[in-house]
Amino acid sequence: MRLCLAALVFVAGTMSAAAQWLDRPWPGIPRTADGKPNLAAPAPRTPDGKPDLTGVWNGPNPESIPDPAIELPWVRQLVLERQRDYHKDRPMYKCLPSGPESDRFTGWKRIIQTPAAIAILNDDQTYRLIHTDGRALEAEPAPSWMGYSVGRWEGDTLVVESNGYNDNTWLSRYGQAHTEALRVTERYRRTDFGHLQIEVTYSDPAAYAKPWGFTANMTLQPDTEMLEAICERSSDHWTGTRTEAASRAVTVPPEVLAKYVGVYSGNYLSRARTVEVTLSGGQLIAKVTGGALVDGGEIRPLVPQSQTLFEGAGLYYEFEVDATGAATALVQINITGPYRFARQR
Amino acid sequence: MRLYLAALALVAGATPAAAQWLDRPWAGIPRTADGKPNLSAPAPRTPDGKPDLSGLWNGSTPDPVIDPANAQPWVNDLVRQREREYFRTRPSFLCRPSGVEADEFGGWKRILQTPAAIAILDDDQTYRVIHLDGRALEADPAPSWMGYSVGRWEGDTLVVESNGFNEKTWLAPTGQGHTEALRVTERYRRPDFGHLQIEVTYTDPRAYARPWGFTLDKTLAADTDMLETVCERSSEVWPVTSTDAAASVAVPPDVLAKYVGVYKGSYGAGRPRTIEVTLSGGQLTAKVIGFAFVDGGEIRPLVPRSQTMFEGLGLGYQFIVDDAGAVTELVEIHISGPYRYARQK
After folding, report:
1. Is residue B296 pLDDT above 70, yes or no?
2. Do the beta carbons of residue A311 and residue A302 sit within 8 Å?
3. Of 2.60.40.350, 2.40.128.50, 3.30.70.260, 1.20.1560.10, which CATH number belongs to B242-343?
4. Contacts of residue A97 in chain B, CB cutoff 8 Å?
5. pTM for the model
6. Rounded CA gap, A338 and A341, in Å?
């Protein structure tokens, strides 16, 4: 808990000193007796009686990984390839639009709803447009990053159908690809003044045996403003791949590797994490349980860079050893710093 | 005229074969007896009686008159430096937002208007939000690419005041810089169904002695849709600057003297162009009269790359010499191909 508070203080400390302009009460919104925005008040409606989704919204990243069993082999292969490249080609890392990627359904957005069209404005200065003028979905729109979308109301639910995507975008940060035949169905429900539920389904039979998706929960962000988050440094400059790391590998004798096998526990930021190190066919493997960010990255093959330092899918792992060469702790080196996991057995 | 028609045919031929989806009649717009959109019908109004600027708009890029005498010396220095670098750091060439650069007001825009806010969506996947909820302009908003904007109605004119710009954006494609103190005033008027007039004024006393700006007209692009134009290749990969080009070869003065003269031809269809080549202090200079894209770029110093080939601010200039040693033509080499100018005198 102390770690968690420290992290919060750190985040707060990075906000601009001139941030008071981000703290302006919105006029005309429902408030509770103590003056706070009443997020549980009824959802607003447009003059024609439809729910009005307009507002500034934010929400956490959904967990959105398909069952690998439904990925067609070419998708599975691309996922593994992209993992080897440290996900360097992820569109947002290249300063390109994220299109229908699941992470784009979260984070800051402003929705502006008019009778004929709804704009969803993302903080990365991309946007989507949903036509609600009754037009049908086009059969063959020009492929684009953000797709072609039409919406219709089913009761209080806005149902959005989209197609016309190019195949440059990903469906998740873990590298799940799609074809130009991708269809996305979204169901938007503003359950009350402060909450928006979005149910997203990806259908792409040329890539996945079954449709898959996730639900995103967004919360209204009243009395503040959305800030721009512009990508200015493309991953084109990133160096290194797992293949290159492998080419730098040194030889570590099997009996030394065997001394690293064990279970290590500790905290990654505020999240408890266990790393189980096993040896299989001369290959050391770290299985990361709890708070893992990389798909299949729960399994990280460890490529030796020295007798004690290993590369594991973009992270470094250093074994601390005692005088006998037995490992006492495993240090995971992230971009945010080292995290120490003490050996349990 | 025949050339002009040929150019139109070429442009039409470049649209994709599956473009019929760009040719859908909009529902519910005023039409003339022959079924065409009636662009001179009255402008639509919102339920509260304000003009409704919503719609899909297109128009030519504005042509602001830029007076170097009005700019502070640091601005003119920056313009010259950017010219030397072939404008490669222009935000749009770097795949970054253009902010309020004059050219960004031209071309395709979709406007969505609600009582509380207006969104202006650009085809390059950036957007601006103009708050209409009566709030005052913030005194000190965080600097951003697209700025902070509030609008108010003066009769049927929407007056927009903006500040909070970072200083990375340009005010014109010719490299005019600005400070974070930039204020932009825009006046939007929709005189009828099919037309939008915009008056833009830049005020930045630390960069320009007097406010300056431009007006432009946009036309409703009815019965079609806006296509994405996403920047995928940053100018960071551009290899050279005019300083690199200056590491040049030596051409004897008597050879340079032979190139002095007046050359005439066309740059593309319907754009007659005259190039006056002069020699002064050993430096050959091309003065391009007619259709010049580059500010002050009517004057292009010619840096020799060979005895007949010169570099002039990113364009190639090749002098054609006949067997008798007489110069007959000057060929201007653009990325779109060579343009020939016959010698007049």
Report:
1. no
2. yes
3. 2.40.128.50
4. 125, 230
5. 0.77
6. 10
